[in-house]
Amino acid sequence: MVRSEMETRDFEERVIHVNRVAKVVKGGRRFSFTALVAVGQKNGKVGIGLGKASEVADAIRKATEAARKNMISVAITPEGSIPHFIIGRFGAARVILRPASPGTGVIAGGAVRAILESAGIQDILTKALGSRNPHNIVKATINGLTSLRSRDDQLKYRMEG
After folding, report:
1. Pick from 44, 126, 46: which is nearest to 93 by CA?
2. Do 82 and 102 meet the contact criterion of CB atoms below 8 Å apart?
3. Range 6-14 contact pairs with CB under 8 angstroms and sequence separation of 24 or more
4. Percent helix, strand, coil in the chain (nearest 5)?
5. For residue range 95-130, what is the model confidence (pLDDT) as tens digits?
6. Distance from C-alpha of 59 to C-alpha of 138, rounded to nearest angstrom
């Protein structure tokens, strides 16, 4: 599968976590690697992917391809923040996402920061609660971002109800 130069250039890849895993076989242990990657266009689109391979580079490549397939759209204000406060949940992980005034920057830990910067969010305050597992933190962040509603969507929802 050949990609055009333009298609691959506008994506930003961020490796969130690489883990060595082992499979116990008759002769001992077989090691392989898993990679968790965030891919975004810095314009409100972001995806996460998980890849597994016997080499780190192959695992990252697989994760990147999976992330491009799992892209979501994120509601971002014109100032570069999020429209409202939200708590993303996944398993025991909770991620608090709060809008911030312009110039604040991305106040977030490693896994959350990678996703928010890939999405193009510039000003936000976050706090990860509960689990510190990168997989669960990432999924909680994605859960919070998909639950965000833009001001227009919120107004439409109120008018219908």
Report:
1. 126
2. no
3. 10/41, 11/39, 11/40, 11/41, 11/68, 12/39, 12/40, 12/41, 12/42, 12/117, 12/118, 13/37, 13/38, 13/39, 13/60, 13/64, 13/67, 14/38, 14/39, 14/40, 14/114, 14/115, 14/117, 14/118
4. 35, 35, 30
5. 999 999 999 999 999 899 999 999 999 999 999 999
6. 18
